[in-house]
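--- STAGE predict ---
source: upstream dedup step, 1 unique chain passed
mode: sequence only
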Amino acid sequence: MAYETSFSPDHSDRVTVLQLNHDSSKLLTASIDHRVVIYEIDASTGQRKQLDVFTAHDAEIRDAKWFHPSTGTHFVTIGNDLQMRIWTQETSQAPMLGRRFRKIATIKCEQLVPFVSVDVKTIGSHTYLTVIDRQGLLSLYEPTNPDEFKEWSLIDQFYVCHPIPGRSDHTSFRVQFDPNPFPLPYLTSFSDDRAQLSVAVAALNHIKLYRSVSDPDIINAHKSPPSPSSTNVGRSATHNLYLFEVLKIPAPNMQPPTSAGSLLRDIAYSPNNIRGTDVLAVASINGTVAIYDVSLQSKSFSDANAGSSRSPNVPNKQTTSTTRPSAQTHQSNLTSALHAPSAATTNGSSGTTQQTTTLSRSAHPFSYTHHATPISTFKDAHNDAWSVQWDPSGQILLSSGNDGTVKMWKRVVGGSAGVTGEFELFAEQGEEDESDDEVGEEARREDDGV
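--- STAGE serialize ---
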């Protein structure tokens, strides 16, 4: 049985998104040309057939994700037109007429800053959506009605870094939910919350991990006193969740903070935590691909061993706090959110956002602590590493970069001569259609929002 290994995309400009749905029956591609193309894939032959093509945004499309198939055929897109849109399939419409997929919801960026990364998570009958903009403002949403996705409620929102970057700064942010069916604290018996949300963030030159708390007493104890302009957050939401920062790791081969040479391009959360650890992989602008094991320990055990030696990549104490605007006017549903004023104030022409209310995101209330161990670091994986992605088993990592190559890193048992860590390169494929300089410049322009 022969499968098609490559094809020319049906776009007039560079492709920015390539996403398979959960059962690999549909393929989504999106581009700078503002369009989305959906393909159907034959499971027996691997052949693709174009299902529809349509204009999804009024600007470059930055990211897209499929919803879980239990919710039907839905996907979300974000673009440089400051909008996030949710789409559904209309099976009554004929293919290739531009009407097969219909927009059912639009969420606008209140801060007038483009979204750069989005992800979707479904737990039982509940669906969550997280999105981050190019200044590091992370937002967590859920549908007002779990049976449809026409209106969305804002559950939580905060900046993942401090100080907040200016609008003209070179930034890079990526966000991903834990793809595992159960969170690691539940699997390791540190928690009985099987619906806990875990969010991994590549925030400039740091890796951050957040976990949710639903206890209202804990949430109220850590939140600042609400202001009249911020009381709409979570008002119509089914769940009252609060994300705490539980881990912060410097980027591999981190350069001075004033340099953009260690920005993280991408982050990937392994879908296999059955080994008792979470596994995170990152791709850096300096060409490094790094893989980390994240394990849990009881807080009492960690306190007893506070004086012991630790990995230099893992801080002993989380001291970074994030801030939230004091002038937030987040709305409880989509209709009112479209008319909400900005949630931040801008300092003159410099584009520096001023924040006045500080919330403690790192002083988490959990009875366990997180410890990260770098298990594999490949310093020269690419000239500029663009993206990383795990296979469904969590044993193979794919990486790509501006050198026109895709590399596959496989978990090995015991390692081999000359290999440090638990992963090694076992496959590589390259393309020479475009020069490294041209592709690299396009990627940097994309990250800058140009």
